[in-house]
Amino acid sequence: MRKHVFIALCCLAASTFIFSCKKEAVKDAPVATEISDDVKAKIYAAGFGTDNVRKVAGGYLVENDIVLTDENLNVKVNSPFLRVANDEQYRTFNTVNTFGGVRNITVLVSGLSTAFITGTDEAIARYNAEGLNITFSRITSGTADITIQGFYQGPSGGFITLGSAGFPTAAGNPYNSILMNTHPQAYGTNPNVLYIASVIQHEIGHCIGFRHTDYATRSSCGQNVNEGQVTNGVGAVQIPGTPAGADPNSWMLACSNGGNRTFNANDIIALTYLY
């Protein structure tokens, strides 16, 4: 039996997987490589754990679904905000600039099946239903603010990555890429659209500046592990009005429940506060 987890978006295997995959089928997939101590030090200083860090296109994959760019790791930020080691909704130092109005963010799904397209539409509808100062619309051609593409990678070390994304830029733009795993052990041969929508909804959350709700404990993963100290870089700023106790149903929990998960009441408070 497998336990699906988000880390924030991966599946935890309760048994050992024996598998093989075609390397030529991998495109922009996380690739294991040696990470220097200097890079690990920057990742730690940015407020993220350094276990299982992998080099990927555009930066480094940490916490199994977050991409940190060189900009994230090299920008020093002095902030009055301090980390609170509880389960609360957290944002990064950078958020999306709405320029004082309502900003529409375009999303393009490239090279993925109908299930991923429908899942994207559902995730977009969930955000747009909240009446925020950011909206989303899917386009079918041209250059989008966020492009959703596939990669193909089987389980590794007991986990399989379902999706990954990064954080907003210092200029106030959303992270421009979400990668979704097309390996059969990620979503199966007949993917559940609402499950895919929940994963994309979570990854969009990272793109607009949300960290894992339980980053200080990873309790949703059955762990008691802090994802890292926060001294500079990305940051983990607690959002006012969100709870100081556990929030077991947040859309930004580090681990998935393996099914459909959308915004709870505290998530909506957090979204409304920021946008």
UniProtKB/TrEMBL annotation:
<feature type="signal peptide">
    <location>
        <begin position="1"/>
        <end position="20"/>
    </location>
</feature>
<dbReference type="Pfam" id="PF12388">
    <property type="entry name" value="Peptidase_M57"/>
</dbReference>
<keyword id="KW-0378">Hydrolase</keyword>
<dbReference type="InterPro" id="IPR024079">
    <property type="entry name" value="MetalloPept_cat_dom_sf"/>
</dbReference>
<dbReference type="InterPro" id="IPR024653">
    <property type="entry name" value="Peptidase_M10/M27/M57"/>
</dbReference>
<keyword id="KW-0645">Protease</keyword>
<dbReference type="GO" id="GO:0008237">
    <property type="term" value="F:metallopeptidase activity"/>
</dbReference>
<dbReference type="GO" id="GO:0006508">
    <property type="term" value="P:proteolysis"/>
</dbReference>
<keyword id="KW-0732">Signal</keyword>
<protein>
    <submittedName>
        <fullName>Protease</fullName>
    </submittedName>
</protein>
